[in-house]
Specification:
The chain contains 16 helices and 12 strands. The protein is α/β, with parallel strands linked by helices and 430 residues long.
């Protein structure tokens, strides 16, 4: 087979279980499900950092964000090296004849995707991105394989529900969000559905139930409350939202996820119309998740599974293995090597990730024993069985979760004598 076309689809703020193929009965994602049906879905996939800029930097470079001093969306002392700029995946693919384009949200800090070698064809992330991607696909030439990043804005609009509800209580922070008319209108439109079908029917038959880990965690790290109070709308949501308002949050999250699934479907249709779907590799992922009422929180930044675990699917028309894979993988570390493998490029020796292509070929690869995830308030290390978190300061800053016995992360085992040997081993990994 000639070198395949490669499309990397990135959504914004989509947690791992926000897909109907993952068993979520409150969301309908037929187009993501189609990608999963014809590919390998990684159910233990983690981002490198649970906020936009660091995670996206990692996806596009194969580097941990801390390697350039990037741990939050607000870091200023970022150190982008010449090695990163000169040896990025876009420039390397161009060297072997690929056309390399980027459409949609960038969300980087201290660097632009054009600095990494991408030709930018859209920066909007909504309908414009869909249109330009389809136009590009229809005009593509068989003799020139392409690598296209399609980066959508949603389901990120869910971020604006609490902001919309508590805009008047936000003080000076309010000014930054007042221009968000489009997002606020979208939130209001979705809320109207309750009135259209009737409140009783809505909450009985349509609106998602509260999650099983709805209440705050026992021994919750003190730094989490500090984080919420520093962003007043998050603290207001936790302390004032009723149960039904949290359920409405979950409903809106499902609806904005369905909207981006529809956009993905339009791109997939363009591939089929062009007749190139059988020579196109699709990688689908998101930058991070959303708490979505778990532990009475919305948004991101913390180190719970809801924001650390993300959807990650690879669709290969020639795959010998499809279905679900339980291997521990990182979208930030493993996407770059995987793209290299599909394009016929050597994987740079200084990358910490590994190609996942052999898994789709039906081959075995060495299973990763652990993964690290960084954040602005702490760091985590996760295995298939346990997760260890060390937050930067405050009471209960050390956390140990048994992901097999208690995947909802409601209880900290760091002080449990039965877990001391595991605790010591996890400390060494971090």
């Amino acid at each position: 087979m000639d070198r395949p076309n490669i499309i990397l689809i990135i959504t914004d703020q989509q947690r791992q279980d926000m897909m109907s193929c993952a068993g979520n009965k409150y969301v309908n994602t037929p187009n993501i499900d189609h990608i999963a049906k014809n590919g390998l879905r990684f159910q233990n996939a983690y981002c490198s950092n649970p906020v936009c800029s660091p995670s996206r930097f990692s996806i596009l470079t194969g580097k941990m964000p801390s390697e350039v001093n990037l741990k939050s969306d607000y870091d200023k002392n970022i150190r982008i090296t010449a090695d990163i700029l000169d040896n990025g995946i876009a420039k390397r693919l161009k060297e072997i004849g690929y056309e390399v384009v980027y459409a949609g949200k960038e969300g980087l800090r201290g660097i632009k995707v054009s600095d990494l070698g991408f030709d930018v064809i859209s920066t909007e992330g909504r309908d414009q991105t869909v249109d330009v991607c389809c136009e590009y696909i229809h005009n593509s030439q068989e003799e020139h394989p392409f690598f296209m990043v399609t980066s959508f804005l949603n389901p990120h609009d869910i971020c604006y529900m609490a902001i919309y509800d508590f805009i008047d209580e936000m003080g000076e922070e309010k000014k930054a969000f007042l221009p968000r008319g489009k997002e606020f209108d979208r939130i209001e439109q979705i809320k109207l559905h309750k009135d259209q079908v009737g409140e009783e029917i809505f909450y009985a038959d349509i609106c998602p139930h509260l999650p099983d880990n709805y209440l705050p965690q026992q021994d919750e790290p003190e730094i989490i409350e500090e984080l919420l109070k520093s962003r007043n709308f998050r603290y207001m949501a936790r302390t004032t939202y009723t149960d039904n308002e949290w359920r409405m949050h979950r409903y809106i999250y499902a609806k904005v996820t369905e909207s981006v699934d529809s956009q993905i479907g339009i791109v997939m249709k363009a591939l089929k119309e062009k007749g190139i779907e059988d020579n196109t590799i699709i990688l689908f992922t998101s930058d991070h998740g959303d708490m979505d009422a778990s532990h009475k929180m919305e948004h991101k930044s913390v180190l719970y599974e809801e924001v650390m675990k993300i959807p990650f699917i690879i669709s290969d028309p020639n795959a010998k293995r499809v279905g679900v894979c339980s291997d521990l993988v990182s979208n930030g570390l493993d996407i770059y090597p995987t793209i290299c493998d599909y394009a016929g490029l050597d994987v740079p020796l200084n990358l910490k990730g590994k190609s996942l292509k052999p898994l789709l070929n039906g081959e075995c690869i060495e299973k990763r024993k652990f993964l690290k995830v960084e954040s602005e308030i702490g760091d985590a290390v996760v295995t298939t069985d346990h997760k260890y978190v060390m937050y930067h300061h405050g009471a209960n800053k050390e956390q140990l979760y048994d992901l097999n016995k208690e995947p909802l992360e409601m209880c900290n085992n760091a002080n449990d004598l039965n877990y001391q040997s595991i605790l010591e081993e996890m400390r060494k990994l971090l």
